[in-house]
Amino acid sequence: MPPKPTFRHIKIDGYYQVDDYKSPKMGNSPPVKVHTNRRSHGNKLLRHLNIIQQQFEALKGGPLAEGIVQDDAIYVEFVSELNFEPAFNSFESNAAQPKYRLLSIKKEKHGEDIRYRTNVMLTEGGISHFYKKINEYISENVERNGEQTETPKNNKLVSNIEAIKLATLEAFWMEPDKVPFPEKDEIVWWEVWFRKKAGDTAQEADKEKITRQLRSIGAEVASHEINFPEHFVKLVKATAQQLYNSVYLLDNLAELRKPKETADFFQNLNYSERESAVQELLSRVRSHVNEESVAVCILDTGIQRLHPLLKDFLSEDALYSYNYDWGIHDSIGHGTGMAGLVLYGDLTEALAANNSIDIYHCIESYKLINHQIPHKPELYGAVTIEAVNTPVINAPERPRIFCMAVTDKDEALYGRPSSWSAALDSIVFGNEGSDQQLFFVSAGNVHIQKAEDYTDKNVYESVHDPAQAFNAITVGAYTEMDCFDSEEFPGTQLLAPKGGMGASNSSSIIWENDWPIKPEVVMEGGNLLKQDDDIITAHSLRLLTTNNNSLNTPFQTFGDTSGATALASNFAALLKNQYPDLWPETIRGLMVHSADWTPQMLQGRTLKEFSTLPVIEKRNLLRSFGYGVPDLDKALYSAGSSLTLIAERTLKPFRKQGSDIKYDEVHFFEFPWPVDVLQDYLTDADVKLNVTLSYYIEPNPGSRTYSNNFSYRSHGLRFNVIKPGEDKDTFLKRINKNAREEGEKGFTSEDWIIKEQSRNSGSIHRDFWIGSGADLSTRNCIAVYPVSGWYKTRKKLQKYDTAVRYSLIVTIEAPEVDVDIYTPVANTVAITT
Question: For labeling, which of 34, 407, 428, 515 is most exposed (least CB within 10 Å)?
């Protein structure tokens, strides 16, 4: 059978309009607890405030026995009623000199119940402010249209508060319950988050004052720091008692967290090969690398550059180290193993073939960790920023992809951002004038020690920090490997079925829905054998790659999410080489867009059958495998029966109107569409529409993220498609309230396979629709519009005028019939195929 003709994807310029946008959706207010005696409830809270006021007046300028005050402010905890969400926005003043300021929100689970602890800084004026609010709640009602209602004033604020307490040092501890607060006299490293104050000069003065005060009590302050829009983060080594005695001096303290520690890499098995195998492979390798070639920068344990399969693709001036006392080469083999997969893919395939191997990308190495000479705990976010900046500064014009399989040995619990994951988001977004980046990170490994643990352990062990980052591509592991020698391993069976979850794959099933779908994609991570309940490793079920001890054992077996991440980076380098001018957001989007779930992942169902499953089953599939296994041919090329259109645009989500921040733009696309072919040749055939929207968010981390007003993401974007038989005017009205007549309503959304409820987490969104060619022929209108984020709600940060980039990727896939849907569209947009 002759190969299918392949064509470059069609990049669309134009074919869209920009309109003023108003969201048709109404915000949902959280429920308010009804108190049978509001006076009794209000007076209880006033008594709590009286105690705080008395302590504040009596003990200004020093530590309390049970809490913390300072010269002009006090730290207070507002404790919510069980299962009622506080009015978070009411704890943050927008004044230039705020009398009260929200510091953090901690969500606690009490069995099946939930409680929120809101940590707030109050000045004396702030205490008076809440006195006034509670008194109004007790004695006054809301007035509407000139008439008194039965609703108390400030009802949303006061009714959902159960208690007001003086905050202790533990109130700043933002780790989950399973990570205990350190013992009083235990010397430990703390990740300390401070609020930023207005003005660069004031910030630098604050940082100097903080360092001076901490050192005065005997604390050690690490040199690195990370800066975010509203916080800066430092590492401090001290006892809880030392911090307790000094916190009253630190009037911009926001949070305390546990620093991150890197995971121990697995011990790799060596695989001996004759020198002739290396030389034979080298004779078939053809390098096309030059100064403009894509570089994959591997952040790992260093790379053994002298390996014959690597040295022509890793120049001496592309070897970097966080600490040059460690050296720049690889001492344990992990970074070198990553390098071989990044360049060649699985070497088993390369060695078994006899064709020439063309390589168009090179590698760079940044030695991020050294297990043989471990350094003291660091802010790994700051170290990663330095690691990324170093090669960019040295070779700024070279296009680059970053690859990191270094993760924390603890899980990224429930998807909550950390300083490290937020640093990755900041790197990829391109803060402080930097370019946007493409960054791959491993999901982190689950270690299966007993056969019975697979797959329960994979489900309940979370993706590791920092792989919860919104903007980075998190890579998990699946496997197609099923060949092993039954005589060498008698009485054994495959642990993972072909096409199923890799033994090392971690998931985001236990995360809350607000956090991104992780991993986004899965790649080959190898398989294991089981014998009764024991686990056995076989070389034939692992990837083959380069070894750091190249003189004796040039190859090693490799795998897990590290190997999968290296393969994903190789995939992206091939894609970037083919489309060098596409944005990083688009390369990321194409990779996710090309992915499919295996029959094993779908449990034998078709995609159409999958659409009818309950939401929880769809959610679990997405949060186990992301969007599946990327297909390189689909990512690289369109075909006669598979047409891919790409649009790269800049949209302004918000604008300032008077004193309010409003939504600004919506983009409506009217794509050139193969209408005649769809209607004449595919009228009753099932045709698939595949849509992916990819963009980067700017992070604003901190544990205030349970409130919409203190959202982690800068903004969100969404897409919708015109329904079969829906006219354009109705579509515009359905999406944009500004297009409606006053009072017009009754618009319903279109039908999808994944559906909005499941696809709208994170910053990349993908969905499918399958229907007749006749119905699809009218579905060429797509809208891209904004949803809220801190650019909109944090007005004082003045980012509301920021324009953002996105990539929209649309594919029509026809059945395997002799039909050409590509050429009519290519001719319409005058593209050369």
Answer: 34
> CB under 8 Å to 650, separation ≥6 — which residues?
803, 804, 805, 806
- Least Cα distance to 709 among 625, 788, 793 occurs for 793
pLDDT in tens, 61-118: 554 444 554 547 788 999 999 999 999 989 988 777 888 989 889 888 888 899 999 9
> Measured between alpha carbons, how far is 45 from 164 in angstroms, rounded to an integer?
7
- Taking every pair of C-alpha atoms in the chain, what is the biggest distance, in angstroms? 92
Structure tokens at 405: 């399989």
User: Which residues does residue 602 pair with via DSSP β-bridges, in sequence order?
Assistant: none
Cα 328 to the center of its chain, rounded Å: 30
Q: What element of type H or E holds 435?
A: none
Report how far apart, in Å, the C-alpha atoms of 655 and of each of 651, 733, 735, 786, 795 are.
11, 21, 19, 12, 10
Residue in the structure block whose two tokens are 């013992």: 183
CA–chain centroid gap for 748, Å, is: 30
User: Can you give the three-state secondary structure of 320-378, one letter per residue?
Assistant: EECCHHHCCCCCCCHHHHHHHHHHHCCHHHHHHCCCCEEECCEEEEEECCCCCCCCCCC
Query: Could you read off the pLDDT of 707-730 as tens digits, one per residue?
Result: 767 789 999 999 999 999 899 999
Q: Where is 193: in which H helix or E strand?
A: strand 188-195
Q: At 135, which helix (H) or strand (E)?
A: helix 124-139
Q: Is the Cβ–Cβ distance between 598 and 628 less than 8 Å?
A: yes
For the stretch 622-631, pLDDT in tens is: 999 999 999 9
Reference 46, options 119, 121, 133; nearest CA is 133
Strands, E assignment, 344-463: 357-359, 362-367, 400-404, 438-442
Report yes or no: 398 and 289 within 8 Å, Cβ to Cβ.
Answer: no
The number of beta carbons lying within 10 Å of the beta carbon of residue 497 is 12
Q: How far is CA 602 from the centre of its chain?
A: 24
Kindly state the tokens that stand for 659: 């004193």
Contacts of 656 (CB under 8 A, 6+ apart): 662, 795, 800, 801
Rg (CA), the chain: 28
* Contact assessment for residue 397 and residue 292, using Cβ atoms and an 8 Å cutoff: yes
Nearest to 338 by CA among 378, 369, 380, 310: 310
The beta-strand segments (E) located in 485-568 are 493-494, 500-501, 521-524, 529-531, 534-536, 543-546, 555-558
Q: Are the C-beta atoms of residues 790 and 711 closer than 8 Å to each other?
A: yes
Asked whether the beta carbons of 477 and 524 are under 8 A apart, the reply is yes
Omega within 30 of 0 (cis) for the link into 466: yes
CA distance 817 to 681: 10
Question: SS3 for 220?
Answer: strand
The DSSP bridge partners found for residue 719 are 784
Pairing of strands 543-546, 555-558: antiparallel
- For residue 546, count other CB atoms closer than 10 A to its CB: 28
CA–CA separation, 635 and 570 (whole Å):
13
Reduced 3-state DSSP string for 535-555: EECCHHHCEEEECCCCCCCCE
Residues 6+ apart with CB under 8 A from 381: 226, 233, 418, 419, 420, 421, 422, 423, 424, 466
The helix, strand and coil proportions of the chain, stated in percent and rounded to the nearest 5, come to 30, 25, 45
pLDDT digits (tens, 9 = 90+) for 355-373: 899 999 999 999 998 877 7
**What is d(CA 537, CA 521) in angstroms, rounded to the nearest whole number?**
24
Residue 250: per-residue pLDDT = 66
Q: What is the C-alpha to C-alpha distance for residues 831 and 796, in angstroms, rounded to an integer?
A: 46
